[in-house]
Write a structure and sequence with these properties.
Blueprint lengths: L7 H8 L3 E7 L2 E8 L6 E5 L21 E5 L15 H14 L7 E5 L1 H13 L5 E5 L10 H13 L8 H6 L12 H9 L2 E4 L2 E4 L15 H4 L7 E8 L4 H10 L6 E8 L2 H4 L1 H27 L2
Parallel strand pairs: 3-4, 3-5, 5-6, 6-9, 9-10
Antiparallel strand pairs: 1-2, 2-4, 7-8
């Protein structure tokens, strides 16, 4: 059983308070968080379905000493506005707008988790020339986002109860469960995320997302179609207990023409920032660090010609 006590690394990370800002994309306010120095190399973080930028609070500070890091709330999530319908292409536009508004001046690296990996692949297709590289974290080749099935079942259950369950803050935070579910959630991580993922409405506490984001026919997107279209430097992170079995990993490798490293996070569920955050941080830092070293070597070689 995991201890509920906060370890020193987590306490230090959470103490690194992010900046908050917003921008407007197609008439909708988009909230973002930012860490690090403006003008440093950029990293853009894209959350999964039903999540928000708070999911990166204990991850982003580990790169803030060397990079400007921006994490957005996609429309329909967190503290961003709502839309009548949601499409992956719009979320991709929002992500790049947040990166610029949040102080990323050059070509960012983009890291996307789960449904956010779908959005990241769309960013790569639509804005490839503006990127330094992308990392997709445990995004499966489903026909609908991996969060849709479980969240749709929850919505149906609430409809049978004539609406969301009435909750106090303590009650709703205690019910925090990632979707899709996984066996391990570090309690101090889960608590921090849950407390920032709810708001009070008419005397009860509710989650900060629009259930319209889980309408499977709205997205107009298939990851299987996008992967071959990407011309951006890419890494794929696969969680050992996540949503990418061996056969799917082979399909992904084929779709990417066997040119993209597949990094496996050992003993991690689908949401590695919840159960193995330090392993996730190490994988992101190592990947981006290797790319940056390669770029410096290439630049030195060109300068010497």
């Amino acid at each position: 059983m995991s201890s509920t006590a906060e370890p020193a690394w987590f306490t230090r990370a959470i103490a690194h308070t992010p900046e908050h800002g917003s921008t407007t994309v197609d008439g909708c306010d988009i909230h973002y968080r930012a860490w690090g120095t403006v003008g440093s190399p950029g990293i853009l973080l894209v959350h999964g379905g039903g999540a928000n930028s708070a999911w990166w609070d204990h991850v982003a500070p580990f790169g803030a000493g060397t990079h400007r890091i921006v994490a957005l709330d996609m429309s329909g999530h967190g503290d961003s506005g709502r839309r009548d319908s949601y499409r992956t292409q719009t979320w991709a536009k929002e992500a790049m707008a947040a990166a610029r508004a949040g102080g990323i001046e050059g070509k960012p690296f983009v890291v996307g988790h789960s449904m956010g990996g779908w959005v990241t692949s769309q960013i790569a297709v639509d804005f490839g020339d503006e990127l330094a590289g992308i990392i997709i974290v445990d995004s499966p080749l489903n026909d609908v986002p991996p969060e849709v099935g479980s969240m749709a079942k929850r919505a149906q259950s609430e409809q049978k109860r004539n609406g969301p369950r009435k909750s106090t803050l303590e009650e709703i935070v205690a019910r925090f469960r990632p979707q899709p579910a996984q066996d391990v959630v570090l309690p101090y991580v889960g608590r921090n995320i849950a407390e920032q993922s709810v708001r009070e409405v008419d005397g009860t506490w509710v989650w900060k997302f629009d259930r319209g984001i889980f309408s499977p026919n709205e997205h107009g997107f298939k990851l299987r179609d996008r992967l071959p279209e990407m011309k951006v430097r890419t890494a794929y992170v696969r969680c050992e207990h996540g949503l990418i079995p061996d056969e799917m990993a082979a399909d992904i490798n084929e779709l990417l023409d066997h040119r993209v490293p597949m990094v496996e996070l050992p003993d991690s569920g689908h949401h590695p920032m919840l159960d193995r955050p330090l392993t996730l941080i190490a994988a992101i830092r190592a990947t981006i660090g290797a790319w940056e070293v390669y770029d410096r070597i290439e630049a030195t070689g060109r300068a010497g010609m």
